[in-house]
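Quick one: C-alpha cells for this chain, please?
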Amino acid sequence: MSSALLEQLIDALRVLPGVGQKSAQRMAYHLLERERSGGQRLAQALSEAIEKIGHCVRCRDFSESEVCPTCASASRDAHLLCAVESPADRLAIEQATGYRGLYFVLQGRLSPLDGIGPRELGLDSLAARLGEGEVQELIIATNPTVEGEATAHYLAQLARQHGVKPSRLAHGVPLGGELEYVDRGTLSHAFGSRTEVS
C-alpha cells in the first residue's frame, strides 16, 4: 500500500497532457528514487512560473511583464499582425521563419460545443487593436482543423470590418513529400488552393 503523499504526487503529475496513471507513477518513482534534487528544482521552477508568469496585455502571450519583449520591441513591424492559436505556435513561427511582425495569441480556437466563443479568445481586444489603424495585414495562422478553419473565417471577417487585409498560411503538400503518400484531405486542399507559377 503506497503512502498518501505518493498518491498525491502521482495524481498531480496526471494534470500534464498525455500523462496517464502509469506514466505519472513512473515519473513519481523516478523523482523519488533517482532525482530528488531535480524534483526540488522542478517544484521551485513550477511554483515561480505559476506565480510570476501572466499574459501580455497586447498579444496575450505568456509574459513576466505587462507587455512582453516582442510587443515592446521597436524593431518589430507593427503593420503586420499574426494570429496564432497558442504560445507554442508563436514560438514555432518565430523559430522557423524570418517573420518580424507582431503576434496575437488566441489561447485556443472557436469551439461552441466546448463553450469557447469570441470573448474567450480575446477577440474584442483584437478588434480594438485592428481598429487602432496601425495594422495593415492580419496573418491568420490557425491550425487546419475544423475549429481552426472556422476561427480563420471569423478572423478574416473581423479584419475586413476594420479595413485590414486578411491572409492565411498556405496548406498543402509538405516540402520533400511525395504525392502518393500525402493523405487525401491534404492533397485535395493543396489541389484546390493551387497558385499560378511565375
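The mean pLDDT is 91.
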